Amino acid sequence: MRRSVLPVPVPVPLLFSVLVAAVAALVAALLTAPTARAADSAEAAARAQQRTPVVLVHGFGDTAASLDGLEDHLLTQGWLASDLAEFGYDWAATNDSNAARFGAFLTERFGSRPVDVVAHSMGSLLTRKYLKDGGSSRVRAWISLGGPNHGAGDAAPCGPFATFCDIHAASLADMTPGSPFLNSLNAGDETPGTTRYTTISSTCDQQIPPGDSRAPRSTELAGAVNHVLPVGDSGCPSHYGLLGNDWVRRQIVAEFSKDPVREVELKTGPFRITVDSARFTSSGESGPELYDGLTLTTDGTARSLWHRDRSGATAFPDHDPWFGLDDAARSQVFGGRATVTAYLTDADYSAGNNDDVMAAGRVHWDPALGFGRFTARMSGVDGGEVSVTYTVTPVQGVPACRVRVDQAELTYFDDGTTRPALYGDIAVRTGDGARTAVWSRSGSDPSTFPNQGNRTNPDPYFHQRVGSGTTYGPGPFEIAVFLWDYDASSADDLVARGTVAWDPYTDRPGTRTSEFRGDDGGHVKVTWTALCP
Predict the structure, then answer these.
(1) Among 81, 203, 252, 501, which has the minimal tally of Cβ within 10 Å of its Cβ?
(2) Chain centroid offset of residue 505 CA
């Protein structure tokens, strides 16, 4: 016999409680849903698509700064900042020498990863030289914008006046139609290897016009996809307008988007960047007097690391290549991207000479690069190069390491006196941006030391907090030496200057000795210990 189930009356208070519970559950679901979506979003934000790195190369008479606009555009199209690079070089040097530097630059920035290249104007020649000499194996796509691939008509006078051109800019002789460099570059296959070649020229280009009878259709290459503007809605850009033309930029993005992409994990912030040091060297200019500056940009905010107006240009002799960086700017907390920018100009006071940009460009850090110490190098004319060393760590979770300065010794300095009078400081900078002098004296109260020639004072050691056992932290940290000898009758001499950096992500704890040098054989040794739990 089947029993029938009769409805059971539900008391009103109980029904009300059930309704309240249901409403509460619904509200809770609505409130927690955004949190869950935010968590999913954070998970997604920790990964990104990584494209083939793009290297931008400027032309004759330009600097890497001329490529900023195109690089900014590629950032908006999905490229990671760390996968974009501007190659700055000495445009007056030969294309052979710059091709070799280009190869070294690719390895330094991207290791063995394949790259894509956009070359403007004469940048096409040095990059083609690199490709012809075997570099095609690592360049997936190459695009020439207004490149003088068969010569520049305006360089034709360098044929009968090659010596004059070599004195002022050897690269001018390279661009002469029919030059030995171009004959060799264009012999045989003009588009060697598996690289995808594209050229873009414009009938409104006044520097490399396709209709120039001295170098007709110079940009085009046999075997490449050749575009001569105007085409469709391209307009008719000038030589420099090619870099900012919307149609050209669409072609660049479309061509490079043919490459495979991969997913990479990104470190999550907040991060701390500390600029450890910056130094300038030049192989072609002795003691340049620099102005303009260095900038650190984090999350869109730019801060000056070093700046001089032309009237206050600072000499950079070989023995003292270090920049005195702004302590307030060199350590910053940020959430996404950091950029080091250089634009350094040599003030040339000789009649008829122009100021030269001896280093220009910018280098990016983003979370795809991970933590550790990095060096940004940017170049210009006369072999000028600025090297900026910086460290990036997370704000939270950094190993609690500290440093102890054990000993500092003046091992040699001989300016002809028996007791040089030293002033300046030996200092420690820690990861929180604090700078502490472990030894310091003012120019009005220097401390006397013996020299190698006559050790009338048997104590060459620095005393104050040096060797006191005091530790400084948190890491990363740097030890900086900046010591001068006071001379009452002539200019003071630089005894020793420099920095050494340590960070917990790339360096091991322990004791080591660092050496710093200056004028008159100045030599200071600092022994220090990195301590980690």
Answers:
(1) 203
(2) 20
Run of H or E residues at 170: helix 170-174
Phi and psi at 107, nearest 5°, equal -65, -40
Token code pair at residue 346:
């040599």
On the question of a cis peptide bond just before residue 230, with omega within 30 degrees of 0, the verdict is yes
pLDDT one-digit tens code per residue, 338-385: 999 999 999 987 756 789 999 999 999 999 999 989 999 999 999 999
**Summary mean pLDDT of the chain:** 87
pTM, entire model: 0.83
Cα distances (Å, whole numbers) of residue 126 to 60, 109, 158: 11, 18, 19
CB distance 176 to 154 below 8 Å: no
3-state SS assignment for residue 529 = strand
Q: Which pLDDT belongs to residue 33?
A: 39
Q: Two tokens at 260?
A: 């495979």
Confidence of residue 251 (pLDDT cuts 50, 70, 90): very high
C-alpha dihedral (278, 279, 285, 291), degrees to nearest 10: 30
Which of 291, 284, 316 has the alpha carbon at shortest distance from 382?
284
- What distance lies between CA 488 and its chain's CA centroid? 42
Cβ-contact 236, 230 below 8 angstroms? yes
CA 103 vs CA 100, 108, 252, 418: distances in Å: 5, 9, 22, 50
Reading the block at residue 461, the tokens are: 């050691």
How does strand 447-448 pair with strand 385-394? unpaired
Residue partners of 87: CB distance under 8 A and separation at least 6? 55, 56, 57, 58, 64, 102, 105, 123
Q: Which pLDDT score is estimated for 248? A: 98
Q: Which of 310, 358, 323, 287 is nearest to 64 (CA)?
A: 358
Tell me the mean pLDDT in the region 133-158.
93
